[in-house]
Amino acid sequence: MKTILITGATGDVGSHLRRELAGKYKLRLSDKRNLKKNKGETFIRADISKMSDALKITRGVDAIIHLGGYSVEGPWEGILKANIVGCYNVFEAARRNGVKRILFPTSNHAVGFYRRNQTIDHRVYIKPDSRYGVSKVFGEALGSLYADKYGMQMFMMRIGNVGPKPLDKRRLSIWFSPRDLAQLVSIGIEHPDIKFEIVYGISGNKRAWYDNSNAVRLGYRPEDDSEIHASEILAREKPSTDAIAEAHQGGIFCTAEDVPNPAAPKKGRKK
Ligand code: 15L
Questions:
Q1: Ligand 1 geometric centre to CA of 263 (Å)
Q2: Is-catalytic flag, 132?
Q3: Tell me, what's the pLDDT at 260?
């Protein structure tokens, strides 16, 4: 059985993945916050902004799902430390430890300034909508470098919004159900021919803004579609007063300086 490291394992996507991947892989979890591990999991508390910690957690694993870091728009200092320095440390530690494969959850916010009336694929020029989006573009660029220069295998998933149900009208286009997430992640771990790939992490949503043919080419067959939730969501959605957010795929990330994590509305952003 392969050993998979999940960084940032206490977050929302990490929690879905722990449940979905249990029994299929040996899960090594890491986070700077404490975590109660389940049977079959190991946990190492680590701060990925320190190279020594990154080296410790990446030693001896078969693949890494690098979720650790800021998951929304926020102050530059935090994003720099967690998403730029932290991402560099994890990729570089993987290289030094001989770990070939990394799955990186980049984000819809790497391309959030595309308009909602456009359909984009994995080849479009980046258009980040936030400092957070820029940090995800950094991860994509670093992945490309490490694939070309060091022969590492990089699976870049531009994730929409993971959850049991889409949250609002914008998320009807980018919703990613936990079981579709698990399917795409399994492809990222198991596919024999990954060099550097960009795919969109969304379900098979009728309202998608993405042409996800690269994921389909690699075998992805999403089982869910947000459309079954559309009438309920559209009926309760209030008209937006933010014309820029409304016109662009990234929504309020295009205008706000700080965005709360939708998975933790009471506590604010994740990190
Ligand atoms: C993201 O990239 C975030 O990680 C997630 O928390 C959501 O805000 C999501 O984008 C979104 O666009 O809804």
A1: 9
A2: yes
A3: 85
